Amino acid sequence: TMAAHDFNFLLATDSYKITHYKQYPPDVSKIYSYFECRRKKGSQFNEVVFFGLQYLLKKYLTGRIVTEDKIQEAKLFYQMHFKQTVFDEEGWRKILEKHDGRLPIRIKAVPEGKIIPRGNVLFTVENTDPSFFWLTNYIETMLVQMWYPITVATISREFKKILAKHLKATSGSLEGLNEKLHDFGYRGVSSQESAALGGAAHLVNFCGTDTVAGLLMAQRYYSCPMAGFSIPAAEHSTIISWGRSREKDAFEQVLDQFSSGPVSVVSDSYDIFNACKHIWGDKLKERVMERSQDSCLVIRPDSGDPAETLIEVIKILEDCFGCSKNSMGYKVLPSYLRIIQGDGIDLSSINEILQKLSEEGWSAENVLFGCGSALLQKLNRDTLSCAFKCSYVETNGKGMDVYKQPVTDPSKGSKRGRLSLRRNSGGFIETVERGAGKPEEDLLVTVFENGVLLREYSLDEIRKNARLRDLDLNTTMYNSEKELLGKHILNGLH
């Protein structure tokens, strides 16, 4: 099994939950709950990318996760924590004896990578053995941490929409879209596991990354041998260690060491404009010009106002190296020269930069972007209003639809009854409440039952599910999806 067996699942919940088995109505035999990203008026995100459940299930919930040692550890821990005996030792031992330590739980979920409008059910959880009704919401704490990969995958895809729109408008094609946004966020997240989850979520949409943890997660949990790519690149330490007077030598060293293949060089250690005009555009001009499209130099500004700096840099490079016009009439630097902006990038600044570039007559082909904190860290559970709520219970064999409806906040009202997700006759995805859905229409798939993972998704499948559609570009409709997106995106490949 893939479960991490040094991990004690009994200790992986909010501690108040271990007292809940005493609080449900007598004779309750089923608790059924669901997870959604609630609709919020005025939110910039109307739809979400479902991603990350498979990792949580494989790592933490699959197989024999309850053992006598873990029960004893939890019993002692909660005794000290609550200063009284409230831990359900007997209940957990029954799971051990009756189910060999496997969780009697069923989880049905949207296929990973699917794009679902806010306000719809994304997964449901229910107990499969009436004795263990309390398990359903015991695992809420862990399952709600799904908010993180879902939110990163969603934001990353919003970046992709913006990039696709500008790239199509200024170059006439979407070639290279998958490499346009590079994940620079490894050092900016809270932990190795956040880097893995966030890094992999970004790889649903793009294949540029330096976050190794995300690549490993895609490899180990989503059957993708190598999900993303990078190029040799300088950082400030490798430039400034030469001393201020030898910046040209530092640049030249990078060109020498990486003579084939693209290479990125941070050029703002002292004066980005001087570096572009006098070092790249003069002293090293011949060295730059002898490189090819496959071995291009990518210049990296890393400070100042992103849009202003980028426009000034691109104008200096045009003066030094010239440019040509593409089929859409936009200017493009020589193919051996590109720029990457990795500082100050978020959804609003990237749009502003691309807008200003096109107003100045430049194609989006000239630039790539790197993003760290806005992609992986400047977000929380409220970004997409992620919530897990109970909607159905069975007591004495009788079912009842339940819900919350706070008088102080109607937006926090919850769904009722057993839920299913369907595409209606108008083609729109909607949640059917109160058990009224038809099983054959249900888009939710049983992915986990009684300790066993029943359905696995590869990153390739997930990328296909998350690919951009015509309407994502906010431009005119094109003849066919293939023509619009180009094979490399449809396949989710580099």
TrEMBL record:
From the UniProt record, give one GO term of the biological process aspect.
circadian regulation of gene expression
- Entry's EC annotation: 2.4.2.12
Q: What is this protein called?
A: Nicotinamide phosphoribosyltransferase
Q: What Pfam families is this protein classified in?
A: NAMPT_N, NAPRTase
Boundaries of every Nicotinamide phosphoribosyltransferase N-terminal domain copy: 8-107
Q: What is the scientific name of the source organism?
A: Periophthalmus magnuspinnatus
Q: Which residues form a coiled coil?
A: none
Residues forming the Nicotinate/nicotinamide phosphoribosyltransferase domain are 180-423
Q: Which GO terms describe its cellular component?
A: cytoplasm; extracellular space; nucleus
Its family remark reads: Belongs to the NAPRTase family.
Entry-linked InterPro entries: Aldolase_TIM, DUF5598, N/Namide_PRibTrfase, Nicotinamide_PRibTrfase, Nicotinate_pribotase-like_C
